Here is the input.
Amino acid sequence: MAAKRGNQTVRSMFLSMAVVVAVAGVFYVANPHDEDADPLPAVDYRVELVTAQRAAPYPVLAPKGLPKTWKPTSVSYARQDGNSWHLGFLDPGREYVAVEQSTAPARKYIADVTHHAEDTGKTARVGGETWQRWEGPKYDALVRSADGATTVVTGTAPYERLVEMAESLESDKAPAAGTGTDADTGTDTDAGSDADAGSGEA
Here is the structure.
């Protein structure tokens, strides 16, 4: 009798497992799935951009005319954190590129957003403007101080991609009168702005 009960227990276990597998199979077939789907969705940063351009005391920059193979993945604007604007992308090679702007003290800000890249002493003429070239163990960067803010184009992408991003940057807002940031000390001479906006993070 004991052996018979044991056989029945094993049979019941196999039947239960078969039911579970069958149910799982039904859910898999019934729900759409794409094994090649990108787990990191693109973000629509238009609302945050308009908000930042209205609030920031400097011309907030964003790319125009980049190919669709560039995917925006993160965006934020933080008034309390040095009026900081962030816009992150994956380039066509799936390397990271970010546009960072702020009125925060320049030295610390650049170190933070580039993960401690250092100024090479070299410059590059990009989009009609002179940018400093920075290099680091994690990110390289193009850096420029103007119009009351420090602008950094940085990431893991190769130098050519950083240049491509920098060349595409435009703003729909002119510099605000009476504002400024010392490029060396990063001293903010403007009181700030009135709004914060943000979504996503790369």
